[in-house]
Design goal:
One of its GO terms (biological process) is DNA integration. With 295 residues, this protein is α/β, with parallel strands linked by helices. Helices cover 45% and strands 11% of the residues.
């Protein structure tokens, strides 16, 4: 760019010849004009700020940490562009005010008895009539517009990680309540008597119908703290495994085919997949061991 510019052609022509924008050409010409050939060498973003800007960056970061000022407030105090201050804060890892708060230590717990706590949750998955780019990696095939959603309802035992899952058409109160009854029946057939149910604060779980079912079944309902999904962490972690190893594992030809494959995966998960959190055992083995211990 610099060499062509010294030959005389205008910047727009240079940009067209090199396949870049005129703004890019002007940027490199300006760097060469102020710093010579050395300014054209590659440099990391961490060291790209001029030395003269370092004191201002330090002041901006201090105002952010000590006084919790926004980028706009800092920019106004220092008489600098807001975009510049925001970029400095992002590079320093202070782009969000939440990053200034001390991280809450993880609260891990493990119930002792099967059925002592059952986690419920719902994951929404898009329906499709043909394999999408998430599975195939090919974005040229187009989207499955208007296909709707599948709602994957999950129930997982805290002590053993034994799981029961259904793909249902919605997440309404009647559907969620029916799933609860069927899940408890499934666990009961395996010797697991539920005592407590943990859910988030979704509309189905806070409905009167769901509360009535909980009461009639003699269960205790525990709700997670609002906007704190980690409180129901075992369900969240199970859903991540479910997505990675079932929903997105292979390029299913359709969402119906994906749903038909779910029983196979759940059977493998409960009987063959080991978990480090339960001593590298499978859920069924953990269940059998705990049932003998508590009998």
């Amino acid at each position: 760019m610099v060499a062509r510019h010294t030959e005389g052609p205008p910047v727009p022509r240079i940009a067209e010849e090199l396949g870049v924008s005129a703004r890019t050409v002007w940027k490199w010409l300006r760097r060469h004009r102020t710093g010579g050939a050395a300014a054209l060498e590659s440099r990391s973003s961490a060291s790209s700020a001029p030395d003269a800007a370092r004191p201002w960056i330090d002041i901006a970061c201090r105002l952010r940490r000590d006084f919790r000022l926004t980028a706009a407030e800092i920019a106004a105090k220092l008489h600098l562009p807001r975009s510049t201050v925001a970029r400095w804060l992002r590079q320093a890892g202070l782009g969000r005010l939440s990053s200034l708060e001390p991280k809450e230590p993880p609260r891990r717990y493990q119930r002792d008895r099967p059925g002592e706590l059952i986690h419920l949750d719902i994951k929404k998955l898009g329906r499709f009539a043909r394999a999408g780019h998430r599975s195939t990696g090919d974005r040229r095939a187009g989207r499955n517009r208007g296909a709707g959603w599948d709602f994957v309802h999950v129930a997982i035992d805290d002590a053993t990680r034994l799981a029961y899952v259904e793909v249902l058409p919605d997440e309404r109160r009647g559907t969620a309540t029916g799933f609860l009854v069927r899940a408890l029946r499934w666990f009961r057939a395996r010797g697991v008597r539920a005592e407590r149910i943990m859910t988030d604060n979704g509309s189905a779980y806070v409905s009167k119908l769901f509360a009535k079912a909980i009461r009639l079944l003699g269960l205790r309902h525990i709700r997670t703290r609002p906007y704190t999904p980690r409180t129901n962490g075992k369900a969240e972690r199970f859903i991540q495994t479910l997505l990675r190893e079932w929903a997105y594992a292979i390029p299913y030809p359709s969402s119906d085919a994906r749903a038909r494959d779910l029983p196979r995966w759940i059977d493998w998960y409960n009987h063959k997949r080991s978990h480090s959190a339960i001593g590298s055992r499978t859920p069924v083995v953990a269940l059998n061991n705990l049932m003998r211990f508590h009998t």
